[in-house]
Amino acid sequence: MKINLYDIFVEFDFKELAYKGVETIDLETERDLELDSSGLTISKVESNGLDLDFEVHDDKVKIRTGKLKGKLTVHFSGKVRDSLVGIYRAPYDGTHMISTQFESSHAREFIPCVDHPAFKAKFKLKIGVNKGLQVISNMPVMNVKDSDGKVIYEFQETPPMSTYLLYVGIGKFEEFKIENKPEIIVATVPGKISKAKLPGELARDFIKTYEEYFGIKYQLPKVHLIAVPEFAFGAMENWGAITFRETALLADERSGFSNVRRVAEVVAHELAHQWFGDLVTMKWWNDLWLNESFATFMSYKIIDMLRPNWHMWGEFLLDETAGALLKDSIPTTHPIEATVNTPQEVEQIFDDISYGKGASILRMIESYIGKDEFKKGISSYLKRYSYSNAEGRDLWASLEETSGKPVSKIMPAWILNEGYPVVKVEVNDDTIKLTQERFGLLPVPDKTYPIPITIEVNGKRKDVMMEDKHLEIKVGEKVDSIKVNLDKAGFYRVLYNELAPVLATKLTAEEQWGLINDYFAFLLAGKISKEEYISLVKKLINAESHLPVLELADQLSFLYAINAEKYGNIAIEFHSTQVNKWKGREDEIGRRTFSILAINLSKMDPEFASSLSEQFRNYELLDGDLKSAVAVAYAVSKGSKALDELLHNYRSSKFDEEKVRILNAILSMKSPYTVVNVLSMVFTGEMKKQDIIRSIQYSLFYPSVREAVWEWIKLHAKKVAEIYGGTGIFGRVMADVIPLLGVGREEEIERFFKENQIKGAEKGIQQGLEILKAVSRIA
């Protein structure tokens, strides 16, 4: 079967949130046609002037076409949903816009179609709406005309693309345009366009750099960057019409570096998809990682090329590699190239493995074959499979062809197998003995991996491929200094039999991060003692780089939260030391690092919180990062007395950036009653549905609050999961929430989720329970 073109006309009733449509499909089939259709009413199907018999069953429309080469017309109607997937209503300020989110299998909720990534087709779209409304889609508007009290927007025909990349947005928009090839348009609902200039200019620079890197021009005449008021994901790469949460797109010079960097990373990620995912698409969802890993990897690479002072590869370790190493160290993991039998299953693998691990493996392979060879291989791959579909093996073949190195031999071991190794390093005079085994926080089946080992001994670099369990290296002189996994480019951990020769080397910021990240994992896994871990922390307590500092801040604030009596002294000592080092820094990274340290310390040290909270009187004059820290300090030190004032700020804020900042501050309070009441604002409409999951995460620092939040979750878990129905988001966030939420109530939390199964969240919940077992050992 082949689909050539969908010619679609849809007429909307914006107020009633309903629509009716007619689509003519140009196709070729040897047998009766089966279309995907979910929640739609099919009233008539015809071809060549004849009505065809059809039946609707299990989200399918089976049409008795027999062998057919030509056009088929389907009449249908549907509803705009009050959800976050398919075609849905995104409310704001007492009104709404209509938006779509079709990945992975929700285009069938808008039109009858063959909703499969390999069945690419052209789309010719006409949308009828009430006068005064605008419509955005993948291509530029070709014609606008009045018809029977409606306005009909007709769009240029798309190139061949997968159904999940189709986009329709309806509402009232303001637009910021940059005359460019392609034209760049940032679209917002009214009143938000003041924060559009920065992301528009970033997009212009990213597109130009991607075109140079890939050797392929951006293929459409324009690209819309659309801020959607209610959005489940961070963003979605619809070809030519990319959608974003407002916080992932809108920023200006006062937003703070944390927000600006996040916007840059998300914009760069989605624009990378315009080539890797849209122009060339995976054949099936088992290769989802081809889309997501590559876009993740390229977003950091492209920003690093344009903003080297942002130290993006350090951010990559914090944002991507860390989560992937954690989630891939438990029994409930999956290979990067996962087995996916149905589109519904793919929702649960939009996770740290498909994004972070895949991207980390790409970084490791680039380090192995060289940056120029990697670039040539990627360009060759994209040119070969443009407007088509490809598999992982096609990418490896291109990289092997350009580099001359055995990429196709190495990659399957990392892509098709779950887990990763820990390399144990034993130094004995002039001999280095390396031993590998699969790393696990809990017992996992052992595996052997082909590891591109990078090692520096006595200041001299060596590169070796470790393919067996053991490898012995004769140095020819006494080993005085050693470090393995240079710049933490390899996706493996390193456990030394003694740390003195390691600490005798000059460790880069990435290597310091790798050392402390590895040793925290060894603490969780029971491979080192609490005393050994704290000894290493004290050796790095005066670290200069933000990278190890932020990693230690994350670890120690977590340890404080699970057991303040056991870990409080070292956590407060570290944060107090580092806050003084970073206070007053004017550079972007310095301000952000101080903010994170100050937020953590405010929750641990009432005196510090009280002192910092004094700046709240000048809140509106502060930098965005400092605002975040001061708001938390104010909320913690004033408690419920500050609630009315903070809620007023929350309700009166125009931008989500500020709403989220204030929300996080309120959720930092020690008052269980206050926190759960604020969480319940999601049911009254005062909190956006998109924010409830992250709000739960942010509310778990204090044990007494955790207890109240747990009772709240027991009451509302299924209701919250339904908000994100069909996305897998609830499960992914539970994987991060349960390891802290469950401390001290391990059996109860496991029993609850066993007795209250939440469809689509099973994998994430199980991951959380497994990590909880490791955390409970050290609590």
UniProtKB/TrEMBL annotation:
| SUPFAM superfamilies, per database record | Leukotriene A4 hydrolase N-terminal domain (SSF63737), Metalloproteases ('zincins'), catalytic domain (SSF55486)
- Cofactor(s) the protein requires to work: Zn(2+)
Aminopeptidase N-like N-terminal domain mapped to chain residues: 5-165
State the protein's name: Aminopeptidase
Give the matching CDD domains: M1_APN-Q_like
Q: Which Pfam families match?
A: ERAP1_C, Peptidase_M1, Peptidase_M1_N
What are its GO biological-process terms? peptide catabolic process; proteolysis
Q: Which InterPro entries match?
A: Aminopeptidase_N-like_N, Aminopeptidase_N-like_N_sf, ERAP1-like_C_dom, M1_APN-typ, Peptidase_M1, Peptidase_M1_aminopeptidases, Peptidase_M1_dom, Peptidase_M4/M1_CTD_sf
**Note on cofactor:** Binds 1 zinc ion per subunit.
Leader sequence range is: none
Q: Where is the active site?
A: E270 (proton acceptor)
GO MF term list:
metalloaminopeptidase activity; peptide binding; zinc ion binding
Give the enzyme's EC designation.
3.4.11.-
Extract one GO cellular component term from the record: membrane
Q: Does the keyword Signal apply?
A: no
Similarity comment: Belongs to the peptidase M1 family.
Peptidase M1 membrane alanine aminopeptidase domain boundaries: 203-414
Domain named ERAP1-like C-terminal: residues = 482-773
Which residues does Zn(2+) bind? H269, H273, E292
Please indicate if the UniProt record lists Metal-binding as a keyword: yes
Give the site residues for Transition state stabilizer.
Answer: Y355
User: Which keywords, in A-to-Z order, does the entry hold?
Assistant: Aminopeptidase, Hydrolase, Metal-binding, Metalloprotease, Protease, Zinc
